[in-house]
Amino acid sequence: MKILIIGGGNMGQTYAQSFLAAKIIEPENLTILEHLEEKVAMLKAKGFDNVITDPGAYVSDVDLVVLAVKPQDIPSLFPRIRSYIKPDQLMLSIMAGITIETIRQGLNTPKVVRAMPNMPAQIGMGMTAYTSAAEVSRIELITVQNLLNTTGKSVYFEEERMIDAATAASGSGPAYVFYFMDAMTDAAVDLGFSPAEAELFVWQTFLGAINLHKKNNLSSKEWIQRVASRGGTTEAAIKAFEAGQLNPTIQAGMKAAFERAVELSKMK
Fold first, then answer.
1. Residues 211 and 235 in one domain
2. pTM, whole model, 2 decimals?
3. Which of 8, 197, 240, 259 is deepest in the core (most CB within 10 A)?
4. Exposure class string for 103-115: b at 16+ Cβ within 10 A, else e
5. What does R_g of the chain's alpha carbons equal in angstroms?
């Protein structure tokens, strides 16, 4: 199998490293197309030998093209690679907000898979939602799933709208967690902890809570009940959250992210 990754940024590098580490592809069969010279130098310094700055006939020789560029780059990218793309090649896009139909029309090719990974994919703990055009075969979808799973977990959806939903839930999700951690850290400092102590307490609390949840079958609500004894300190905190409408606010934030994802999809 030969793979071309277009875009040598964080996610392009993540996929390249993950594919190689999983032994899914041999190094000589992986090519990265990156036009920025500073990124080319960085990629080569990290051990990627097949880094090319311009499209060429080699694009036609690969089995899978991973589109890992920023959405705003497609007006300049698509015309440069369109003539090299063949109808039997598989396109895997991780570009936020770019629909399957936009890619099909822009590259004049039918076989498109659209995926939405998130940042933890960089450490093999990502969550990716993906969908595909009807022309993509079951065997090709299995191949894509194996590739995506090198960066964590993946779930296939029949409806493309669920990619926008995944953008709001898992794509933007890590920022929600960091936002809550930041608020807790600030509060801990106000309570008298040093910044370093506050970060340690918050980080370890999140890590412990997530792993505790993972090792048991209890729901989040059930865990809250276990921690929050009647008349205790946790109950006081939960009551303050509820008084401040924290739960509806979080839901409103996710809805806003979803609506923005839909808007971006329509703009392309």
1. yes
2. 0.90
3. 8
4. bbebbebbbbbbb
5. 22
Instruction: Out of 133, 159, 185, pick the residue that ends a domain.
Output: 159
Would you say 164 and 261 are in contact if contact means Cβ atoms under 8 Å apart?
yes
Contact of 11 with 44, CB cutoff 8 Å: no
Domain-located, residue 241? yes
Q: How many CB atoms lie within 10 A of CB 243?
A: 8
Q: How many CB atoms lie within 10 A of CB 116?
A: 28
- The CATH number for 42's domain is 3.40.50.720
The single residue listed with the structure tokens 């990502």 is: 126
Do residues 7 and 76 share a domain?
Answer: yes
Dihedrals phi, psi of 99, to nearest 5 degrees: -75, 160
Ramachandran region of residue 86, left (φ > 0), alpha (ψ -120 to 50) or beta? Answer: beta
Q: Look-up: residue for tokens 């396109």?
A: 91
Question: For residues 110 and 87, is the Cβ–Cβ distance under 8 A?
Answer: yes
Within 10 A of 202 (CB to CB), how many other CB atoms are there? 20
C-alpha to C-alpha distance for 124 and 129, rounded to whole angstroms = 15
Q: Using an 8 Å Cβ cutoff, are 132 and 110 in contact? A: no
Contacts of 25 (CB under 8 A, 6+ apart): 1, 2, 3, 19
Tens of pLDDT along the chain (268 residues) come to 999 999 999 999 999 999 999 999 999 999 999 999 899 999 999 999 899 999 999 999 999 999 999 988 999 999 999 999 999 999 999 998 899 999 999 999 999 999 999 999 999 999 999 999 999 999 999 999 999 999 999 999 999 999 999 999 999 999 999 999 999 999 999 999 999 999 999 999 999 999 999 998 999 999 999 999 999 999 999 999 999 999 999 999 999 999 998 888 876 5
